Amino acid sequence: MSSTKTTSTSTTAGTAAADRAYWDDWQRSWDAQQGWYLPDREERFRVMIDLVEAVGGPHARVLDLACGTGSITERLLARLPGASSVGVDLDLALLAIAEGHFAGDGRFTLVTADLRDPDWAAALPEGPFDAVVTATALHWLATDDLLRLYRDLAGLLRPGGVFLNADHCPQPATPRLNELVRTAEQRRQQAESAAGVLSWAEWWQAAAADPRLAEAVAARSAVYRDHKDGDVHTTEWQLEQLIAAGFGEAGLAWRSVTDAMTAAVR
């Protein structure tokens, strides 16, 4: 009897480990695919978490907006083990990966919500938050939705809390420099593709072909059927709108030629 119980326990543990490894592989694959487009991705995450720690300390309470597979939260919790995070997304495939990758970690709560819905915040646990973070996501929103979201976030942060948004933010005044960067990026991406790193389209094709993700990928395809990029805005525009939305101050926390991280203090 004792031997049977031991074998059963061992089998269960082995299954759990294999399940975790499966989801971890998908998480690493997502990170590699995102890094294919954003070679300075880790640097912007470092700056972001520096500021979160400065505001919230070792037990910061964070809202991870459009969290995807939880890439920001993974780095946050590795750096600040006492922190907690609420991740919000609508993509069922990415949420499935996040749920599997963070299984059993009570520091991360996942919420399914559409940021285009004026009532999206009703699904959140009670606030306020020390910080709201997001990366390479809000450019999907139409301008009206983005402006409404800024106002929502100002109300979700505690006084002194910070909103950090790292996203595409091209500089129209430097077209030749922008083209040089694009050329350099294409060369790097070609080399990484030859080494086996998947592009966005290739990654989603692989996810759709995986039996455990196929249904979620089909569901997200239905949700995003009419999805397209929102309007392109300059950094200056973003900062002006954040002040208008109720933040006390707003500035630039990080910048590359094509991307920027805006920071707004409640």
TrEMBL record:
Keywords of this entry: Methyltransferase, Transferase
GO aspect biological process, one term: methylation
Q: What is this protein called?
A: Methyltransferase family protein
Which Gene3D superfamilies does the UniProt entry name for this protein? Vaccinia Virus protein VP39
Q: Which organism is it from?
A: Kitasatospora viridis
The record's listing under SUPFAM superfamilies reads:
S-adenosyl-L-methionine-dependent methyltransferases
Give the source's domain of life in one word: Bacteria
CDD domains linked to this entry? AdoMet_MTases (cd02440)
Q: Which GO terms describe its molecular function?
A: methyltransferase activity
**Does this entry carry the keyword Heme?**
no
Domain named Methyltransferase: residues: 62-161
- Enumerate the InterPro entries for this protein: Methyltransf_25 (IPR041698), SAM-dependent_MTases_sf (IPR029063)
